[in-house]
């Protein structure tokens, strides 16, 4: 949607609410249709079961099954390449966490990982985690986390944590809380691979938002809330944008930045490869 229309909608609460109600009604109709189609198809659309439309929508904003599979498959291959930039081979990492795994769109494509490796997925979405436990239990262990840290994992549990499309939704304080928590559960020299809304996505922002983002390096935009929030996730889950300069400066408390790759995740989001900092006694 052109930024002028978006700006007009946002600047007028009554219009924005009406727009939200119309969008919500259309969304419910499409959801019903998609549920009905899935039930009629009732065929194996892939080697692993396909999550129901609402769970697909929550992670991709679409009900489309082919898109769900393709984006997840591609994301998994891109994570392998990004991990190699940090000297890790995902195929033989002993312990990996998909943080904010949703209904397993990405982790399902790592089903051929080494049998002795410990793979986990974690998310706040209890419905998605229940589905993953039931249908993707052969791929990984799954756990529901609270929307604020800590998670139930011990310190130094993982060699690699990846998080696709999470830091694109958190406000600034939660972003820092979770960066600290992910550093806690990573082992020495462990890698975090996270995605962000970089310059490619900034083009769609209205001028005032762009000015704020350029000045601060970070922007958190609140859209619909409550029932009109189509994904059904809590209101804190909105849209965040970053500049590379901000990430290099502000994500470095616990991490060294190994690489920043523009549009490295499905040609849309930027990817950041970070290595957990190791503090020597002499540093204290
Ligand atoms: C856009 S979806 C991406 C899901 C998955 N990474 C993928 O690429 O398919 C964002 C996910 O972040 C999850 N999420 C939001 N806040 C979270 C938090 N504090 N901890 C864990 N997961 C969170 C949501 O429930 C949702 O599943």
TrEMBL record:
<dbReference type="Pfam" id="PF13649">
    <property type="entry name" value="Methyltransf_25"/>
</dbReference>
<keyword id="KW-0489">Methyltransferase</keyword>
<dbReference type="InterPro" id="IPR029063">
    <property type="entry name" value="SAM-dependent_MTases_sf"/>
</dbReference>
<dbReference type="InterPro" id="IPR050508">
    <property type="entry name" value="Methyltransf_Superfamily"/>
</dbReference>
<dbReference type="GO" id="GO:0008168">
    <property type="term" value="F:methyltransferase activity"/>
</dbReference>
<keyword id="KW-0808">Transferase</keyword>
<dbReference type="GO" id="GO:0032259">
    <property type="term" value="P:methylation"/>
</dbReference>
<feature type="domain" description="Methyltransferase">
    <location>
        <begin position="96"/>
        <end position="190"/>
    </location>
</feature>
<dbReference type="InterPro" id="IPR041698">
    <property type="entry name" value="Methyltransf_25"/>
</dbReference>
<protein>
    <submittedName>
        <fullName>SAM-dependent methyltransferase</fullName>
    </submittedName>
</protein>
């Amino acid at each position: 949607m052109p930024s002028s229309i978006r700006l007009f909608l946002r600047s007028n609460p009554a219009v924005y609410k009406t727009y939200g109600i119309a969008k919500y009604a259309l969304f419910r109709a499409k959801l019903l249709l998609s549920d009905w189609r899935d039930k009629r198809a009732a065929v194996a659309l892939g080697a692993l079961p396909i999550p129901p439309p609402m769970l697909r929508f929550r992670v991709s904003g679409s009900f489309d099954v082919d898109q769900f599979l393709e984006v997840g498959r591609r994301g998994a291959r891109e994570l392998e390449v990004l991990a190699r930039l940090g000297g890790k081979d995902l195929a033989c990492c002993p312990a990996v966490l998909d943080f904010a795994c949703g209904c397993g769109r990405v982790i399902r494509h790592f089903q051929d990982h080494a049998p002795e490796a410990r793979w986990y997925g974690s998310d706040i979405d209890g419905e998605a985690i229940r589905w993953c436990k039931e249908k993707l239990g052969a791929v990984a262990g799954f756990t529901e986390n609270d929307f604020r840290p800590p998670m139930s994992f011990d310190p130094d549990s993982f060699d690699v944590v990846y998080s696709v499309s999470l830091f694109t939704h958190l406000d600034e304080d939660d972003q820092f809380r979770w960066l600290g928590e992910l550093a806690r559960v990573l082992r020495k020299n462990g890698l975090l691979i996270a995605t962000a809304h970089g310059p490619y996505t900034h083009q769609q922002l209205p001028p005032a938002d762009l000015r704020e983002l350029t000045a601060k390096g970070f922007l958190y935009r609140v859209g619909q809330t409550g029932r009109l929030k189509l994904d059904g996730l809590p209101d804190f889950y909105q849209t965040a944008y970053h500049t590379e300069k901000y990430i290099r400066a502000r994500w470095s408390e616990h991490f060294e930045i190994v690489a920043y790759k523009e549009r490295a995740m499905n040609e849309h989001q930027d990817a950041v490869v970070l290595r957990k900092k190791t503090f020597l006694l002499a540093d204290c």
